[in-house]
Amino acid sequence: MESQANLTCQNLPTIFSSFVDTFVDFSVSGGLFLPPPITPKPQNPLQTIFPSPTRLIAIGDIHGDFQKSKESFKLAGLIDDHDKWCGGSTTVVQIGDVLDRGGEELKILYFLEKLKREAAKVNGNLITMNGNHEIMNVDGDFRYVTKEGLKEFQDWAMWYSVGIDMKKLCNELGERACVEDLFEGIPLEFRGVRPEYFEGIRIRIAALRPKGPISERFLSKNQTVVVVGDSVFVHGGLLPKHVDYGFENVNEEVRDWICGLKGRVSRDLVRGKDSIVWLRRFSNELAKDCDCSTLEHVLATIPGAKRMIMGHTIQESGINGVCGNQAIRIDVGMSKGCANGLPEVLEIDRYKGLRILTSNPLYQNGKEASLDAKRKDGLGFLLPELGPKQVEVKA
């Protein structure tokens, strides 16, 4: 009888998570429940180089907008009407900036993790990346956090506390649970902040700081630089110094910092205007302002690389390419917290090449004149003359 009770105590967190995941509807609960992570802590080096898939989809910044996130996946035929993975062996790269500007950040993080698991079962692959806003939040920089975003983290903290309390019910886990202080070292008040936001900010710091439960579970699994086939993915851009430093080193240093295993990462890597997640030299909407010579040099030093795909800078004209399509810019400001743009995704097909899938009705109705005019301004759109087959996004 005693051994049976001990077994129950040891498995209590798993039982609780499984119960909630089974009986609480994902869309109703806000997507805050899943079984425990496959690996509690990252042990192996993050994969940086991936083989060229038959079909590759790139999705730009989604900034806390769950509906637009789902529309982007539907646009590419990656999820069905029940939000389940149906993309087969497709490889997907989400370029970062899930956090800030919206109130459904956690819902998206859990949703992406769910899709990763579903895709892996059918040889698909969903790669998630760090943007500048992920780095900012781990740093405790909440300039772009919304009050809805604070509320979502407060809801999460309530359930997190329930889990801790359940652990305390077990004698063998009670001592460990008692020393787990989510708010250790976090002040009670913040200068210049209205008192009604103190609790939400404290919770957000606790969840996202290095070794925080949300940052470690989700953000530590993100890459900062990825090469998939002949495409290099990065949130902001790469300079020669970043290539010289080594992509594997970049990914490992950022991961270890997020896990609380090392101090702050170098400013050259993830902070400052010339860092990997902040650079805009190749993403200015005017092609003449893009540093094509530096881009060409960077790509020449990365074996097999033909193009750099980046987010970070909103392209009001939609996904486009400059510098002979060596720079592909995919941030269309789709989040309602940004430009509330129409979802677009980039598709790279081994046999069909590059094309843009868009929910823009101008393409669906065959009206391309406005884009033709912009081509004269040097934006170098990737759309073929007849346009790709467009997919209408259903609400």
CA-atom Rg in angstroms: 22 Å
Distance between the termini: 54 Å
Q: What percent of residues are in strands?
A: 5-15%
- How many individual β-strands? 11
State the strand order across the main sheet. Answer: 1-5-6-7-9-8
Largest sheet: 6 strands, mixed
The tally of helices reads: 16
Average pLDDT score: 83
The SS-based structural class is: alpha/beta
Shape annotation: globular
Output the helix-strand order.
Answer: HHHEEHEHEHHHHHEEHHHHEEEEEHH
Please give a structural write-up.
With 395 residues, this protein is α/β, with parallel strands linked by helices. 37% of the residues lie in helices and 11% in strands. 42% of the residues are buried. Residues 55-162 form the Calcineurin-like phosphoesterase domain. This is Calcineurin-like phosphoesterase domain-containing protein. One of its GO terms (molecular function) is hydrolase activity.
Q: Topology of this structure?
A:
Blueprint: H1 2-10, H2 12-23, H3 26-29, E1 49-50, E2 55-59, H4 66-75, E3 91-94, H5 105-120, E4 125-128, H6 132-138, H7 147-168, H8 171-179, H9 198-208, H10 213-217, E5 225-228, E6 231-234, H11 240-245, H12 247-258, H13 267-270, H14 292-300, E7 307-310, E8 320-322, E9 327-329, E10 344-349, E11 353-358, H15 361-364, H16 369-375
Parallel strand pairs: 1-5, 2-3, 3-4, 6-7, 7-9
Antiparallel strand pairs: 2-10, 5-6, 8-9, 10-11
Helix pairs in contact: 7-8, 7-9
